[in-house]
Amino acid sequence: MPVPTVSLSLQPTDAEISPLLFGHFIEFIENCIQGGVTDSGSPASSETGIRLDVLEKAEKLHPAILRFPGGTYANIYHWMDGIGPVSSRRKRRNLIWGGINGNAFGTAEFVSYCRKLGAEPMLCVNMASGTAQEAADWVEYCNGEPGTYYADLRVADGFPEPFHVKYWCIGNECYAEPDLGPQHDPLRYVSDAWEFTKHMKLMDPSLKLIYVGNPLDQEWNSTVLESLAPVCDYFSIHHYSSEGARGPYGPFASLQEFRSQLDTLIPLLHACSVSGKKLSPWYRFPGRETKIRLAIDEWNIWDSTPRGKDNPYGLKMVYTWRDALWTACMLNTFVEYAEDIGIANLAQMVNVLAPIVTSGDTSFVQTTYHVLLFYRKYLQGRKVQCSFSAPPLSAGPAGTLSMLNASACLKTDGTICAFLVNLSQDLPLDVTFSENYCMLESEVLSAPSFSAFNTPECDVIVHSSCANPQETIHLGPASVCAVCLSPAGASDTVAQAAAMG
Ligand code: AHR
Questions:
Q1: Beta 437-446 vs 462-466: how paired, if at all?
Q2: CA 71 – ligand 1 centroid, Å
C-alpha cells in the first residue's frame, strides 16, 4: 500500500508566540505541593524541604510562569497562614481535596521556587472566603516597598526587595455551582471582581489581571467581558480533555470541541477589546493598555471518573503515549491561536495530573514530559501558518480526524521549525514542503504503542534525530517530529551560523 503523502505550505506571520504558553500550575491538592514540590524528611530534599529531584526535572522544562495556590483550593486559601516563621504557621484542614495544609510552603517559598525555575509567579486570589481587602494586602506583601505594614512583614521574612508579582487571577472557576463562593451568577462575579480589582490596582496599578471565563457558557463570557473589558488583561478558560466513551481518539475529539469554543469566544474578545470604554480618572489607576488575550490557565487530559478510595477524583493520571501526542496537538493549537492566547498553564506540574511523578524518594517522568521538553526546545518566535490537506483517520465515535496535526514557528535566527504529529496508530505518513526549503535537522519522538506508558523502572519513549533529512519527512505511525528548515538560499548562511554555535 502506498504511503500517504501530505504537502505542507508554510506562511510566516507577524504573530508573536507568547513564551508564557509554557506555564505550569501547583496547587494544595493531594501530593502536588506537599510530597511533590516539598517533602521534608526525604533524603531527596534540601534542608528547607524542597524535593531536589523534582526541582531538577522541573528546571529542564523551564516553565515560563507558575500558578499557585489553586485551583479550587484558592477558595479557602488565606495567604497570611503561609508567612512568618514556618514553625508558627497555622495548620488548616484542606476541605477541598483532603488532608491538612501545614502552610510551610507559603508566598515567599513559592516566589523563591519560581526564581529557581526562572518562572513568573502567578497568584490566584480567594473570592469565596477571602475579601478584596485581604487580596490587596497580599499585593502589598508581595509588591510593596518597605515602610508599610504588610510590605514590612515580607521584609521581616527576609525579603527586603519587592517580589514584583505581576499576574493575578481574580478567582478560579467562580461559575462552578458546587464550588465555594457566591459568584455563580455572572453579574455577581462582575460586581465582586470590580471590587477586588479596585482594591488590588490601587495598591499596585501595574498588575496584570486574569478574569474567569466559562468555556461552556457564552452568556457568562459576554457579561464578564463586556463589563470588565476596561481592566481585563487576560480571560481565563480551562480545558480538560478526556476519552469518555469515544475510544482512544476521544481526547482529540474533545480538542476539536475546544477549538470550536475558541472560535466562538475570540470574536467576542476582539469586540470587547476594541469597545471597552476608558476608565475615568477617578478610578486612580490606569485601565488595560493592550488587547485582551486568553489565559488557558489549566489544561490537560483528565479522566475524572472516581478510581477507588485512593484516587477519588482520578487525579493520579498515568499518561500514555496517546496522551503525549494529544499534548503535542494542544501545543500546536496554542500556536495556531497565537494571536489570542497569551498564557497557558499545564495542570499540574507534579504528582497530580502531572508530567513529573514521585515514587518514594525518587521520581520519574511521564510520556507527556518528553513532548513538553521537545516543544520547549524548538518552539519560539513567530507563528507560521501551516496549510495542508491530509487523509482522514477512519471515522469512529470520535468523529473524523485528520491524520496529521501540525504547527510551525519562525525563530529569530530566520529558521523555521515545523511540528508534525502523525495520529495514525498503524500508518506512516510522508510530509513534503510546498515551498523551497532546505532541511537542517529533524528530531522524532515515538513509543512502542498508543497505550505505552512510563513507570519508575522504564521510560518507553524513543528519540531519534537526523542531521540532514531528505526532502521528504517520513513520519512513523503515532510519532511527533520537529523539522528545522531554512528558506533555500539562506541555508548556507544559517547552517554556517549553526555550525559556529
Ligand atoms: O486541576 C484540578 C482542579 O481542576 C482545579 O483545582 C480546578 O480549578 C479545576 O476544576
A1: antiparallel
A2: 5
